[in-house]
Design brief:
With 420 residues, this protein is α/β, with parallel strands linked by helices. It has two domains: 171 residues, Leucine Dehydrogenase, chain A, domain 1 (Rossmann fold), CATH 3.40.50.10860; 154 residues, Rossmann fold (3-Layer(aba) Sandwich). 43% of the residues lie in helices and 17% in strands. The chain has a seven-stranded mixed sheet, sandwiched between helices. It has a five-stranded mixed sheet with strand order 1-2-4-3-5. Helix 1 runs parallel beside helix 3, helix 6 packs parallel to helix 12 and helix 12 packs across helix 13. The longest helix is centred in the C-terminal third of the chain and has 26 residues. Bound molecules: nicotinamide-adenine-dinucleotide. The site of nicotinamide-adenine-dinucleotide has 22 residues, from helix 7 and strand 7.
Length: 420
């Protein structure tokens, strides 16, 4: 297990502890902190798979079910060679906090399989997806644990998994997985949900700070599903994207970068560094240190740490990735006066639409893309205002208040249910 992944879980625990130490816990059960700092259950599996050439491989996998006091465990499935037990634990913890801060009746979970899906054929990928459901289906149910896509998992994989689950339980059960294609009970408005929500959050927080999104300069780390889609929507709001990086490197133009051109490169599986228009090419990490109004890390965990936080020059950071800033870096950035809109608030759009999908599957009645947009916008305005107002009143960071709002709601549910 790599140090980096181990840190992600320690980071999540430390964020909880920091909020807990500040909040009013007079009416809290003393063992709440201990309980909420670990997942309720972790399932570890070895999944044997017959490859197309007849050989066998074993793929280790994890499911962390962190907390279900407010509703079924909810969280994505990650297929990645760097998945680890602790990474899955961290991501499941953040899911519990995220669902609570945006006030949806769901808890937190996460799945991970140690695999590089790019090395599998499409048939192998389908067999692996189905094998995972066969191994775990007794722990799933739309009212118990509802997975969704995450890094390297797709609507197609969710459709296979839902199909496998439905066969195993002898009942068509679209609500067993969310993030499915529209043909299999998916929701309208899902494709852009994370990015759209991120734009609403940034717009609202800037408005509450008596500022405006228009004309701001943006540096973006990560040109994937979340980051690039958001950049496109930001440009429509008259934000100037001046820096973009992906794992291959970064590009910079102090006036603007053409997002449509960069999207075409990414669709053709190229790097942003293949951009042929006027731009300076630099090391990927440099994007974090450039002067800009807003910096959006949208790639991986632990990108801004105690070692490099002092080099950050952005005025505001919004975390689209999960866990890109460590607690040590949080302290340094706070001292520098750089505010952070935290991941559990900023990237919650997809889980909000997952929730809408799950509700639609349950009622077997589907909403239009316009219905989804309207519901999404209303929910974000409430969540962002709530965190902003309390952070302002109490002169502390958005992250601390986002965690406090979440912890208060989770504690209330656990107490009322008699779990505490
Ligand atoms: P993705 O795989 O589509 O994109 C990741 C991007 O990051 C790629 O462009 C990759 O090249 C880039 N990258 C990797 N290492 C890098 C590095 N060192 N420097 C710069 N760029 C680097 O993944 P995604 O779905 O866009 O997810 C990105 C992050 O956002 C993850 O933390 C994920 O958990 C989080 N997130 C995504 C969604 C969503 O709807 N996609 C929702 C919530 C949270």
């Amino acid at each position: 297990m790599s140090e980096k992944k181990q840190d992600a879980f320690e980071n999540a625990r430390s964020q909880i502890k920091k909020a807990y130490d500040i909040m009013n816990t007079d009416n809290f059960q003393e063992w709440f902190l201990e309980l909420i700092s670990v997942p309720k259950r972790i399932i570890e599996l070895q999944i044997p798979l017959q490859m197309d050439d007849g050989s066998f491989k074993i793929f280790p996998a994890f499911r962390a079910q962190h907390n279900d006091a407010r509703g079924p465990f909810k969280g994505g499935i990650r297929f990645h060679p760097d998945v680890s037990r602790n990474e899955v634990k961290a991501l499941s913890t953040w899911m519990t906090m995220k669902c609570a801060v945006i006030d949806i009746p769901l808890g937190g979970g996460k799945w991970g399989i140690i695999v590089n899906p790019k090395e599998l054929s499409i048939r192998e990928l389908e067999r692996l997806s189905r094998a995972y459901v066969q191994a775990l289906y007794k722990y799933l149910w739309p009212k118990t644990d509802v997975p969704a896509p995450d890094v390297n998992t797709t609507p197609q994989i969710m459709a296979w998994m839902m199909d496998e689950y439905s066969k195993l339980v002898w009942e068509y059960t679209p609500g067993s997985f969310t993030g499915k294609p529209l043909s299999s009970g998916g929701s309208a408005g899902r494709g852009q949900a994370t990015a759209q929500w991120g734009v609403y959050v940034l717009d609202k927080i800037l408005e509450l700070r008596n500022d405006s999104i228009k004309g701001k300069t943006l540096c973006l780390q990560g040109a994937g599903n979340a980051g690039l889609t958001m950049a496109k929507l930001m440009v429509e709001k008259w934000i100037k994207v001046i820096w973009i990086s992906d794992s291959g490197g970064g590009i910079y133009n102090k006036e603007w970068l053409d997002i449509e051109e960069i999207s075409k490169l990414k669709q053709n599986k190229k790097s942003v560094t293949d951009y042929t228009w006027d731009a300076e090419k630099l090391d990927a990490k440099e994007v974090l240190y450039k002067e800009c109004d807003v910096l959006i890390p949208a790639a991986l965990e632990n990108q801004i740490t105690g070692d490099n936080a002092s080099k950050v020059q952005a005025k505001l950071i919004m975390e689209l990735a999960n866990g890109p800033i460590t607690p040590e870096a949080d302290e340094i950035l706070a001292q520098k006066g750089i505010d952070i809109i935290p991941d559990i608030l900023a990237n919650a759009g997809w889980v909000m639409v997952s929730y809408f999908e799950w509700v639609q599957n349950d009622q077997n009645f589907y909403w239009t893309a316009e219905d989804i947009q309207e519901k999404l916008k209303n929910r974000i305005l409430q969540s962002a205002e709530n965190v902003f107002d309390r952070a302002q009143e109490n002169k502390t960071t958005y992250r601390v208040w986002a965690f406090i709002v979440a912890l208060e709601r989770i504690h209330a549910a656990m107490k009322d249910r008699g779990e505490l």
